[in-house]
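Case study B.
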Amino acid sequence: MSMDAVFKALADPTRRRLLDRLRARNGQSLSELCEHAVMTRQAVTKHLAILEAANLVATEKRGREKLHYLNPIPINEIADRWIGKYERPRLRALAELKKNLEAEGNE
Amino acid sequence: MSMDAVFKALADPTRRRLLDRLRARNGQSLSELCEHAVMTRQAVTKHLAILEAANLVATEKRGREKLHYLNPIPINEIADRWIGKYERPRLRALAELKKNLEAEGNE
DNA sequence: TTGACAGGCAACTGTTTAGTTGCATATTAT
DNA sequence: ATAATATGCAACTAAACAGTTGCCTGTCAA
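Model:
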């Protein structure tokens, strides 16, 4: 939803790792996501709640388990709407750099 | 440099606004960047230091002024190396969604 | 050379955040 | 029924963070 929530959710390396694990295998339960984690289950729960609030993860209750699904759409929206704005200045900067290098070569 | 520093730098709306202002006009001094800001100059200085540490902003001393330049390259690196990883699952998810909708239509 | 302008540095405050411990609830298997 | 499993909820702690105030230094202009 809010772009700020997505940026803030992506700011934490633990949360990015959780997204990576879901990308590797979607639909994992909380316990599965806690395996090999260096923190408590409750901490992982909080991280997942933040990801869910940012709409980066969707959940589904299956019996006593809670399955987690990656939603990559907000990430792509950021890529399109925000990062896209920075492509043009990058190209401009590269062109300018090239120009400066050529100018130096002429000295 | 470190991807984490870039993500953390982008997590703050004030810092994203500073990047936007530099994108609109590059090479602004600290005082210029403070205009219309709702916080003190010292606060803006700290935000710019974080952006500089993340290599998103480069600076140059010009007399008594300090000019700030946008460096969009780390943003594009994140787009390419990290966000790019999430394009494939998005397409997969959309394909699956389409399949499910078609299946519902057959019921 | 004095004053105004641009910026740097440091200490302090309030809030947010990441993580913990402890306990409660719901579901499955024996 | 009972025990084990899977998760939820709440209170607490320590560290990080955003922002402030106060003061100092360097540069330019009159």
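Residues 56 and 72 of chain B are 6 Å apart (CA to CA). The remaining cases will be described in the next quarterly update.
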